[in-house]
Every structure is written in structure tokens, then in C-alpha cells.
Amino acid sequence: MSSSVPTNTTAGHCPQCGAALRTDASFCTACGAAVGGAAPATPSRPARPAPRSKRSPWLAVVALLAILAVAAIGWALLNDAQQPASVAIPTVAAAQNVPYPNVARVSPEQAHISAMSDQALIVDVRGQEYYDAGHARGAISIPLEQLPARLAELPKDQAILFYCT
């Protein structure tokens, strides 16, 4: 039996989406585009949003790691800039039979020059009565037994020259 209802044979493809078209179609059933200059019978469907890329979380992680690396490098450079430069003060050789021969020694003249140019701080570690009786010019008094508790008082940007006689 033959019928007058059009069959699902294709007459062509949609110029917009490429879907197969029926012969009597005035619009594409896949995308709603008009076929052959006729207006679509129904409004076209809204476009689907593009699927989210599976790389987007990884991209965010890589960006975060890059930011953290730049911040760490900046912090390290800034922290290095705040470290005091070491002060080089010429030392003299220790005399024979001197206690603690491994301790660097500075001549009195060099100690005075370093203290007057603010490169070094001279600390008298003798008792207060000895300090009061006489001390090197510019020296401060921190008796040896008090030294561990008072280390925070000493500057970090100068050499510290300790003496006792």
C-alpha cells in the first residue's frame, strides 16, 4: 500500500549543522535552522553551553603553584636583603700561650678604628667595678655572667668585639 505521507527519505543535509533532512522539511529537526528559505515552524533551541574542559582544574593548580613559586622567590630575595652584611675587621695572630688560640684577635688600634666608624661594638665583659675603674672608649659593660641573658641587646648589623683584661 502506498501512502501520501512523506517518507523519511533524505533530500539533503542542513547547511548549518549537517544533519540529514527529510524531503518535505522546512526546517532542520536537529538545530531548527530554516531550510530552503522558509522560516522555522518552531523557535530554535538555545545553543548548548560548551562542555567544560577537563583541564581547567589542572590549569588552576598549575597557576596557583606558579604564584606560590614567585612568592617564595620574592620572599627569599627580600629576606636575604635584610640580612646584615658581615663586617670584615682585620685580625692579628694570637700570641704564644694565650687561652683560646682559635678565637680571632683584633689589635687595640683596629678595635678603636672599627668602633669609631660604627663597624663594631666593643663590649667589656669584666665586672662592673672594673668597668667603672676604666674601660675602652665607646665600650659598653655586659659582665660575662650576664652575657647569655643580654645577647638580644647586641646589634645584628655590627661586629661585636669582646674584651677583658
Question: How does the SSE layout of this entry go?
Answer:
Layout: E1 10-13, E2 20-22, H1 56-82, H2 108-116, E3 120-124, H3 128-133, E4 140-141, H4 147-150, E5 159-163
Parallel strand pairs: 3-4, 3-5
Antiparallel strand pairs: 1-2
Task: Give an overview in words.
The protein is α/β, with parallel strands linked by helices and about 160 residues long. The protein has 3 domains: about 10-45, no CATH class; about 55-85; about 110-165, Rhodanese-like domain (Oxidized Rhodanese, domain 1), CATH 3.40.250.10. About 30% of the residues lie in helices and about 10% in strands. It has 4 helices and 5 strands, in the order ββααβαβαβ. The chain has helices at about 55-80, 110-115, 130-135, 145-150, and strands at about 10-15, 20, 120-125, 140, 160-165. It has a 3-stranded parallel β-sheet, covered by helices on one side. The protein is rod-shaped and about 120 Å long. It starts with 9 loop residues before the first strand and ends with a strand. The model is unreliable at about 1-10 (pLDDT under 50).
